[in-house]
């Protein structure tokens, strides 16, 4: 069996009927593509145990290699090898050979410095994207599906203003959008610009908040990400520093946990369980722990110099 046939073989039973989901089949194809990238399209029977160890080392040493992604490739290939052995394909024994990389706990959130740096380099449309992502913690898919009629301004008794909206995210789940006064200012300005843009260019209004500036069509979530990545480059933010729309969500989630209860943050983020929220955000990354530790001046037993 050639490597190019492995994904299909492992995703189907002996009657050639799917035995895994379409998403799992896709992960098989992607992982096998990494094998082909290293070995070429060779016979699976020709790959030895030492060859797979070399492949794992190659994965780990690639530029911009991600531990999470590489570990996923390894687990997928391990599953494929085990399945092929169960179907009497003469592949090598892989027991005990898998080397998984250590993954640092904690999510990658944007820094306040980079947030405002991007704001300084952005137009009003991207400014509103950044503000809504950062304040509401909504995913890019939910932001892309926002319609003007989904949003409303509210004013509290103390004069404070805010934005409340509703959208759909993963699995067509309704999600609540909440944003503060910063979003009010940007939203009002963008709605004024958006309305005049559509009228002057005589293009159809599809009702979506974020539109393509060429033809007024709804802006896709992919196009939103591309726009934000171009903005990151203009702002001169290093490639290894998080600045995506999802990094804005991570930032807000960790900030919300400082002032709201875990169930409240769970509901704002749209998680099924508080456990998911806690596992993702109620942990600190290495740099956060370093900063917190060395920023304290009142540790027991510590005396100031002099």
What's this entry about, in short?
The chain is mainly α.
Layout: helices, strands, pairs:
Layout: H1 6-11, H2 22-39, H3 49-61, H4 67-86, H5 112-121, H6 124-136, H7 140-144, E1 151-155, E2 161-169, E3 173-179, H8 181-201, H9 221-234, H10 245-256, H11 262-269, H12 274-281, H13 286-295
Helix pairs in contact: 2-4, 6-8, 6-10, 11-12
Word description of this protein:
This protein is mainly α and 306 residues long. Among the domains are: 3-86; 115-239, Intergrase catalytic core (hpI Integrase, Chain A), CATH 1.10.443.10. 52% of the residues lie in helices and 7% in strands. It has 13 helices and three strands; from the N terminus they run αααααααβββαααααα. A three-stranded antiparallel β-sheet has the order 1-2-3. Helix 2 crosses helix 4. The longest helix has 21 residues, at 181-201. The model is unreliable at 299-306 (pLDDT under 50).
């Amino acid at each position: 069996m050639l490597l190019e046939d492995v994904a299909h073989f492992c995703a189907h039973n002996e009657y050639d009927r799917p035995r895994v989901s379409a998403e799992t089949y896709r992960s098989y194809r992607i992982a096998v593509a990494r094998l082909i990238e290293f070995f070429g399209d060779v016979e699976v029977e020709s790959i030895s145990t030492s060859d797979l160890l070399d492949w794992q080392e190659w994965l780990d040493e690639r530029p911009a290699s991600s531990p999470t992604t590489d570990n996923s490739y390894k687990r997928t290939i391990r599953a494929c090898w085990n399945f092929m052995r169960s179907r009497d394909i003469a592949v090598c024994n892989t027991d005990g050979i898998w080397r998984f990389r250590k993954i640092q706990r904690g999510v990658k959130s944007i820094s306040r410095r980079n947030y405002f740096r991007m704001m300084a380099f952005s137009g009003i449309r991207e400014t509103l994207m950044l503000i809504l992502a950062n304040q509401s913690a909504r995913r890019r898919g939910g932001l892309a599906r926002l319609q003007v009629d989904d949003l409303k301004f509210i004013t509290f008794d103390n004069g404070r203003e805010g934005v409340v909206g509703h959208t759909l995210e993963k699995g067509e789940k309704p999600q609540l959008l909440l944003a503060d006064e910063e979003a009010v200012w940007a939203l009002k300005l963008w709605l004024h610009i958006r309305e005049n843009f559509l009228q002057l260019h005589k293009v159809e209004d599809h009702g979506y908040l974020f539109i393509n500036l060429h033809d007024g069509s709804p802006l896709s979530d992919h196009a939103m990400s591309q726009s934000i990545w171009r903005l990151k480059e203009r702002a001169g933010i290093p490639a290894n520093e998080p600045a995506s729309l999802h990094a804005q969500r991570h930032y807000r989630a960790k900030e919300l946990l400082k002032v709201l209860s875990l169930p409240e943050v769970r509901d704002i983020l749209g998680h099924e369980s508080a456990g998911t929220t806690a596992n993702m955000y109620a942990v600190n990354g290495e740099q956060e722990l370093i900063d917190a530790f060395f920023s304290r001046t009142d540790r027991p037993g510590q005396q100031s110099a002099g």
